[in-house]
Amino acid sequence: EPFAGTLRQNEIKPQSAIELEISDCLRPGDVILARIHALGGEKEYILSTAETELGVVKATCESSGYDLVPVSYKEMECPVTKVKEGRKVAKPRAAA
Length: 96
Prior knowledge:
Blueprint: E1 4-7, E2 31-33, E3 35-39, E4 44-48, E5 55-58, E6 69-70, E7 75-77, E8 84-86
Parallel strand pairs: 1-4
Antiparallel strand pairs: 2-5, 3-4, 6-7, 7-8
């Protein structure tokens, strides 16, 4: 049974005092690692990616369709076109 989640602008980056562009942090279709911040309604969750280990874990290049590779905590790069796209990248997790 599907569940809905909402990611509010103020729950994307930690202590973001300035207005941020959501498209510089994540985009539709991105796979993110997030925490449940609060319960919204029935079967709806308010999500947060404000912690450093949370954020985008998988994204697709808009021009080539290839998976982007993280190059920093705020950018991912297409391995084919070398185009960099802004994302709030999740901190890599150690393999178990």
